[in-house]
Amino acid sequence: MNKTIIFILIFGLAVVYGCSFQLTFEKGVKKMDKLDNQYGASLKSPPDNADKITGLVAGLNDFKAANPDIPDSLALLIDFRVKFLESAKLDLEGWQWGKASTTDYGFGCSKGYPRITESAKLRNASAQKGNEAVAILQEFVDRYQAEAQSLNISQKDVLILKTEYFTMEEKAARDARIMRSLCKDQANQTG
After folding, report:
1. 35: which residues sit within 8 A by CB, 6+ positions away?
2. Cα radius of gyration (the chain)
3. Average pLDDT over residues 73-77
4. Cα within 13 Å of Cα(36), Cβ side
5. Cα distances (angstroms) measured from residue 188 to each of 13, 106, 110, 179
6. What is the pLDDT of residues 86-115, one digit of tens each?
7. Which of 2, 15, 166, 171 is the most buried (most CB within 10 A)?
8. What residue ranges in 10-78 does DSSP mark as E strands?
9. At what angle do helices 25-39 and 50-66 cross, to 10 degrees?
10. Is 105 helix (H, G, I), strand (E, B) or coil?
11. C-alpha distances in angstroms, 57 versus 3, 115, 141, 161?
């Protein structure tokens, strides 16, 4: 009888011990906030340069890999953040030439064509990655309403991002079309 009681106590302690160290959504968000603070970011805004974005993405991926038993809600939030940050990095790269990255301020075909077409490709890739992020965020908002509400994330945020990425994609496509139609010699050389 004593062996049974001891076994039950040991088993009970093992269960309590295991449950007490499971990562909860709230604890995971706190750890993500610490990462964000290291890189000058927040849940809704990326860091201000590509190196910081790369560091934050690596930190989030490492955090997720180190905690394979995280709640699904936290895994979705991390997946959203990674895609969102990858999109932001591509967007930064797409604007590396400043005003010369778009047709809005004028351009010349000889120097402008390669810059603007490359910028358009990067901004389009950013929009595609952003749309992947939006799909994940939509799932998070739909499936985990309480968690989304605790982070002040709603359907409004999904719609804002959707609109932002749609506009980005349209602008990139417009720039690429203008370059192909007005810089035919350069388009024929590269293509």
Report:
1. 56, 59, 60, 63
2. 23
3. 97
4. 16
5. 73, 21, 13, 11
6. 999 999 999 999 999 999 998 999 999 999
7. 171
8. none
9. 160
10. coil
11. 50, 27, 22, 19
In the block, residue with structure tokens 């349209």:
170
Give yes or no for a contact between 126 and 101, defined as CB atoms under 8 angstroms apart.
no
- How remote is the C-alpha of 126 from its chain's centroid? 10
Give the pair of three-digit tokens for residue 158. Answer: 């999904």
What's the pTM value of the predicted model, to 2 decimals? 0.85
Q: In the structure encoding, which two tokens stand for residue 107, read together?
A: 């351009």
Q: With contact defined as beta carbons under 8 Å apart, do 73 and 142 qualify?
A: no
Domain ranges in the chain?
Answer: 23-190
101 contacts 95 by C-beta, under 8 angstroms:
yes
Structure tokens at 124: 């389009």
**Cα-flanking dihedrals φ and ψ of residue 183, to 5°?**
-120, 60
**Nearest Cα to Cα of residue 63 among 98, 107, 29, 89:** 29
Q: Measuring CA to CA, how many Å separate 129 from each of 26, 58, 169?
A: 27, 17, 11
